[in-house]
Amino acid sequence: MLHIKSSAPTRIDLAGGTLDIWPLHLLFDNPPTLNAAIDLYATVEIIPRKDKRIFLNSRDLGLSDNFSSLDALPDNHPLELIVRTLKFYAPKSGLEISTDCQAPQGSGIGGSSALNIALHGALNRFTGRRYRKAEMIEIAKNIETQVIKVPAGYQDYFPAMYGGVRKVVPGVQGTETEKFAISPAELTRHFVLCYTGKPRNSGINNWEVTKKAVDGNRAVIRHLKSIRDCAVEMERVLSRGQLKSLAPIFAKEWKARKQLAPNISTPEMDRLIRFALKKGALAGKVCGAGGGGCIAFIVPPAKKQSIIEALTSRGDQVLPFRFVSRPLRVASV
User: Fold this and answer.
1) How confident is the model at residue 278 (pLDDT cuts 50, 70, 90)?
2) CB-facing half-sphere around the CA of 204: CA atoms within 13 A
3) What is the pTM of this model?
4) Which of 277, 284, 279 minimizes the C-alpha distance to 258?
5) pLDDT range class, residue 258, cuts 50, 70, 90
């Protein structure tokens, strides 16, 4: 019986987020979503058992539980994503699943999606289902939608599954993805990541934005068009490897995102961005849904260390990280 270990990278979203939710991309000419995998990993370990018992242990959330068999798994549970995914794969034997994530809780850098992909990779191997990568992404997205009760965006699964600096492009027939020929090490020299704490307010409610756009809300449509235009412009810049041209687009996308959902930032986060810009950062933007979590800064490589020191001396939590090409990894041990 196989003992499985899997891990998947989290990500920093660069441009085009929110437009990865169906059907928004169809209403805005299928723009790309751009993101890049980072070396803060979500991990899953599966240890087989000779009986039917199932043990769940989420190390990062500090939650654990156990059940007599697969049939005893409840419909509702604090670890519902793991429970639903287990039910889908329906392993024939009992097992122990341990999950962990190096990304802080509520950080906005795709920790839950990376964990989702690592879980699918591990259970796909454990049960011998042999789903292809694209199939696992579709299954993961649909199960997450069942858990969160609104349509899930798809972009976060791609850096977790494939790694690298990439674009994710939805279409009428399906979703394509492509990795940019950019050195992750070179891109790392241009970024600083700061964790402001677990979100304490609502941030951006992507489903509310989606409903308003479908209902024809002019202000929401205008801001989403701005986000789309930034994503198209950034795709052009990344495809040419012009990293020095990223910051103005990053700043423009952040401005549109704040207008779309003012709750994405807090007064504390606004002060932090102003402070970093004063110390030499070129642009800053809240990662993910915001309301707390991480802020990504684009910085001149020559000033990166001094900006990190300034933030640290102020008491801010700078997260050491690197952009990586490394995709989902699954090992049998």
Assistant:
1) very high
2) 26
3) 0.95
4) 284
5) very high
pLDDT > 90? residue 171: no
Candidates 3.40.960.10, 3.30.420.40, 3.30.70.890, 3.40.50.150; CATH matching 184-318: 3.30.70.890
The mean pLDDT of the chain is 95
Amino acid at 168: V
What is d(CA 93, CA 1) in angstroms, rounded to the nearest whole number?
9
The pLDDT, as a whole number, for residue 13 is 96
**Integer Cα distance of 96 and 123 in angstroms:** 12
Helix, strand, or coil (residue 67): strand
Domain coordinates in residue numbering, the chain? 4-181+325-332, 184-318
pLDDT per residue as tens digits for the range 125-153: 999 999 999 999 999 999 999 998 888 88
Separation of CA 36 from chain center: 9
Neighbours of 149 (CB within 10 A): 8
Question: pLDDT at residue 174 above 90?
Answer: no
Question: What class does CATH assign to 4-181+325-332?
Answer: alpha beta
DSSP state letters, 314-329: TT-EEPP--B-----E
Q: Give the Cα-Cα-Cα angle 181, 184, 187 (nearest 5 degrees).
A: 100
Please name every residue paired with 194 in a beta bridge, in sequence order, or none if there are none.
295, 318
Secondary structure letter of residue 1 according to DSSP? -
Question: What DSSP assignment string belongs to 253-300?
Answer: HHHHHHHH-GGGS-HHHHHHHHHHHHTT-SEEEE-TT-SSSEEEEE--
